[in-house]
Amino acid sequence: MAQAFDPTGKQAASEKWGWFVALGVLMIMGGGIAFGNVLAATVASVYTVGIVMLAGGLLHLAQAFRVRGWERVMYWILSGGCYTVAGVFAFLNPLLASAVLTLLMAVALMVAGGFRIWSAFNLRPLKGWGWIALGGVVTALAGLVIAAGWPVNSLWILGLFLAIDLVMQGLALIAFGVLAKG
Fold first, then answer.
1. Which of 14, 44, 144, 172 could serve as a FRET partner for 133 with CA atoms 20 to 30 Å apart?
2. Which domain holds residue 171?
3. Torsion of CA 159, 163, 168, 173, to 10 degrees
4. pLDDT tens-digit readout, 151-168
């Protein structure tokens, strides 16, 4: 018997609902561990960023040697070198790297919040624009709070965000799995 086309994957999700719930439980447990030691979770976050930067830098350098004939090859080498150095730096001094990443996160949140507020005011004739503005205010305030506590909060803020994200993703997967079952 031929199976009907299911573009949303509803049937597959309903058959595998238990896996979503199990993964959600594991993520919540991981979030609990991260909440228990936010400094270790911060260092783990920095190492993860370091691995990605190091891999990206090395791949960039490899690409630079593949395009040797191009007249701008030095830019490829410099770009790859910067990524590689940043990745190594994250491993050599994860606490200083966490301070840099925390400051960058604070600035990014403030800028993103500002853009959301600006976007909301451009949507002002439409219903619901205030919710977008409120979201922007909350995002900008989160950035300001992080910046105000910098650099002291650099030891725990990234780990705290990782813990919160793990728990929230775990809850979302559990809810999805339970609802997909039905």
1. 172
2. 16-177
3. 120
4. 999 999 999 999 999 999
Q: Is the dihedral of CA 113, 118, 121, 122 positive or negative?
A: negative
Cα–Cα separations (whole angstroms), residue 136 to 6, 113, 116, 161, 168: 37, 4, 5, 18, 20
Total domains in the fold of the chain = 1
Which pair of tokens denotes residue 162?
A: 């990782």
- Which residues lie below 8 Å from residue 96, measured CB to CB, with a gap of 6+? 89
Residues 6+ positions from 156 with CB-CB distance below 8 Å: 38, 39, 42
Is it true that the peptide bond before 151 is cis, omega within 30 degrees of 0?
yes
Six-digit token string for 13? 């999700």
Tokens 């949507």 belong to residue: 123
Gap between the Cα atoms of 45 and 163, Å rounded: 10
* pLDDT tens by residue, 87-120: 999 999 999 999 999 999 999 999 999 999 999 9
**pTM of this structure:** 0.77
Q: Are 151 and 102 in contact (CB under 8 A)?
A: yes
